[in-house]
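call fold(seq) -> C-alpha cells
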Amino acid sequence: MWITLAVTIVFSVEVYAKSCVPYTVGNAVVACICNATYCDDTTDNVPKIPKKGSWYWYVTNKGGLRMEMSEEKFGTNRDCSPNVTLIINTKKRYQTMLGFGGAFTDSTGLNIKSLSPATQDQIMRTYYSPTSGSAYNLGRVPIAGTDFSTRVYTYDDVKDDITLKHFALAQEDYDYKIPYLKKARELNPETKFFATAWTAPGWMKTNGVTDGFGFLKKEYYQLFVDYIMKFFDQYKENGLDMWAVTTGNEPSIGLITNILNFPSMGWTPESMANWVANFLAPTLASSTNKDTKIIALDDDKFLLPWFVKPLFENEIASNYTRGIGVHWYFENKASISVLSETHNEFPDKFILATESSIRERIWGTPNVVTKSWTHAERYILSLIDYINHWSVGWVDFNLAVDEKGGPTWLKNYLDATIIVNSEKDEFYKMPSFYAIKHFSRFVKRGSVRVSITDTDTIKSVVFVTPAEEVVVVLYNRDSSSNFVALKDVNKDELQLELSPYSMNTIIYKQ
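ret:
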C-alpha cells in the first residue's frame, strides 16, 4: 500500500544559500552576476544529510530560479493528482560515478587571470569548492597549446630535436594552468587531473606541421611518449600529478584533409593500438608515472564502433587502457545507445564524457535571451542521457571564456558555462552552469547510479551516494507545470510540482 505525500516549495526559515544577482535582458534572466565580494552559492551550513523526516529540493528554471533550496518534511499533505509517476529501485545498480569538471585551457586561465585576485578566488570556489561551489573534482589539462590558446606552440618546436634537449614547459603553463590547477586541488583535494595532447610537435608528424592531415611518424612513436613523460615529470616538479592521460584529442580531425589550422594528429585504430601497446603502456609501467591511467579515443561517440574494438582486440593495449573518453559533437551521427553497446561489449572499461561545448557564441548577441536556456537544456538532457548510458562523469571544455567566446587564435569562438568581463571585474554564470551543478554538487565520487523510470516529458536519473543519500535529478522539459510522483520501494511516495522548464535535484536519506 502506497502512502501519498504532496509537497510544494516553501523555503525554510534557515538561510541555506546566497541568491542569484540576475543579469537580465528585458524580463529574462540570462545569467547570475558574480564579483569580488558576492556570488550566489550553496552555503556549507546545510547538513550533509537531510535530517530524519526531511528531504532537500533544489530548483533552477527558465523563469529565473537558480538552485533555490527548500527543506521539506515527509508527511506534508496536499491534494493533487500526479500526471507522471517515476519508480525508483535503489537495489538495481549500474556504474560507479567518477566526477565532474572542466578543461584548464590557456583561454580559461587567461580569462581568470584578467580578474582581480579576489574575483579569481571567487570563480575557482564557484567551480571547485565542495562546500559552497559546484564541487568539481576533475580537470582536463592540455599538453601544450590548443585552439583555445593565443598562439600555436608545443613544448619542443626545435626541428629534429630527437634528444628533446629543448623541451620546456611554456610560459602559459606557469601563467594560466599551474596556478589554477593548484587552486582547484587546494579547494578540493579529491580533484583528479587528466592530460591530453592536441598534437605532437610538427616535426614529429608526417606532414611536418601541427595541423591538417597528418600522423605521428613511426620512428617517433617512442619519442612522443618520452615527450609526454617529460610533461608529467615537470608538472610533478610543480606539485601536480596526472591521474590519467588520453590517447590524444580528437584523432579523427587529423584524418580529414579539408580541416586546416586546427591543432590535431591523426590515428587509425590499428596505429593507436600499436602505439599504446608497444610504446605508451610499457613506458608508463616502468616509470614513476606507473599509476597513470590510459583513456582511449577522446573523440566523438559515433567513432566508438570503429575505434574501440581494434584497440581492445590488442591484448596489451586493452590490459593497460582503463577507460574511453567521448565527446558530444555530431549528435546526429550516432544514437546515445552506442555508449551502452560499448559498455556491454567492454564492461571493464569506464566511459567518461571528456568534452562538451556549444559552437555558438551568444553573449552580447540578440540570441542571448532565446539561446541561454536552450543551451542549458541541451546540457541537462545530455548529462542525463550520457549518465543513463554508462558515462561515469562529465567534463566540460573551457571553464571560462570572454564575452567574445575566446580568446582563440583560431577564432573558434564558443559558448561556455561562465563568461568573464574583465573590465567590470565580474563573471556571469550561465544557465548551463547550473545544469552541471545540479549533478556535481550532490553526486559525490563513488555514488552509484540506480534504476528509475523515464518519460519523454520528465527526464530522470538517480544515484545512491557513499553517505547513503538518494539523489534524484529531474528535468521538466514541458512549458507547463507537471505533478510528479516519486515512488521509492524503500520510502514513502513523494509528490512534486515541477515548474515549467525546470531542473530539480531531490535528496533524501536512503
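The chain has ten helices and 25 strands.
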